[in-house]
Fold:
Amino acid sequence: MGGYNATPISGVRLIVLNTVLYSVRNSNFVDQSDPCGQFAWLISQMNDAFSCGERVIIMGHIPVGIDEYTSGYFWHPQFSDTLRNLLNQYQSTIGAMLFGHTHSDEFFFFTDPSSTVLSFQLISPALSPIFGNNPAFRYFYFNNTENFLSSYDQYMLDLFLANKIGQATWELEYSFPQDYEFSGSISTEMMIQFYRDLQTSWRIFGSWANRRAVQGFEQKFKILCSFNTQNLFLYNQCFQNEI
Structure:
């Protein structure tokens, strides 16, 4: 089931939650208000961080929100509500929330019942390629002066290309926020503006959508070869000859 932990590091406190406790796929704790006492522990950690003037970065596996693939929740709603109420009290203390699980490059807002944004969740893609994504990881940079995440670099491994040439090479896919024409540390205000840009700019949305599943040469060539022929043999030949 995992565990939870907190590590203070020079002005910032990294809090790692065991989010499996709250997953809709886990019915073992659905009738409990605080499985394993983790929320009580989190409150004590947030109090300590506030008293010490520390910024908090919350990390876990499963994010809070709506799973678009199931059209359902990631967490049981009562646990999401508990975390929302807790974080609403410490909004100024939270620097970022980092999660995974979806195998996609995404971000979710964490909002109160009136849809006011309390914080943001950065969702990192996965090293595992089992959902059609290429392996990827992020390298985060932290601003020690402001105690904020300043940026991150996302690296990817193109499996199709690696298997084709017999060599695996990790490459920088992009940097955030620089590649989206933002400056300054990653903040709630920046992520709100980025969301608005995705809504209003097809160029920015297209750039993000292309990176969402960490696609590489395979997806590119499958699309381009399908444009060029209606013959399955020629399509397969095109695909094999592209590299």
Q: What stands out?
A: The chain has seven helices and eleven strands. The longest strand covers residues 148-157. The longest helix spans residues 38-52.
